[in-house]
Amino acid sequence: MSFDPLPGPDCTTMSEVRAGVDQVDRELVALFARRFAYMDAAARIKPERSHVRDEARKAQVIANARAAAEAAGLPGAVIADLWERLVEASIAYELSAFDRR
Which of 42, 74, 85, 89 has minimal CB crowding within 10 Å? Predict the structure, then answer.
């Protein structure tokens, strides 16, 4: 039987907390799959491999994530660090996708 986990503030047991975290992790993986599908599209669209890495765009994406995190009351530096890793992983994935085409 499947159920929707309780919102974090409503949890009273660690089982409830863990169920919620596990659900969020599944949702994050699904979102990463959507994001990486865009990397496949970018690799298909960009005419040259040298266009894959765009430092200005990378900085913009990280700044956007930091600002959104801070607006949500989250630690901006932590989110910026996560996004640095995400963007670098995305670039590596896109380079591989470009090379496969």
Answer: 85
Nearest by Cα to 94 from 61, 63, 66: 61
Instruction: Kindly list the structural domains of the chain, giving each domain's residue range(s) and its CATH number in brackets, ordered by start.
Output: 13-100 (1.20.59.10)
Contacting residues for 64 by C-beta, under 8 A, at least 6 apart: none
Task: Give residue-wise pLDDT tens across range 42-62.
Answer: 999 999 999 999 999 999 999
- State the SS3 of the chain: CCCCCCCHHHCCCHHHHHHHHHHHHHHHHHHHHHHHHHHHHHHHHCCCHHHCCCHHHHHHHHHHHHHHHHHCCCCHHHHHHHHHHHHHHHHHHHHHHHHHC
For residues 85 and 63, give the distance between their C-alpha atoms in angstroms, rounded to a whole number. Answer: 13
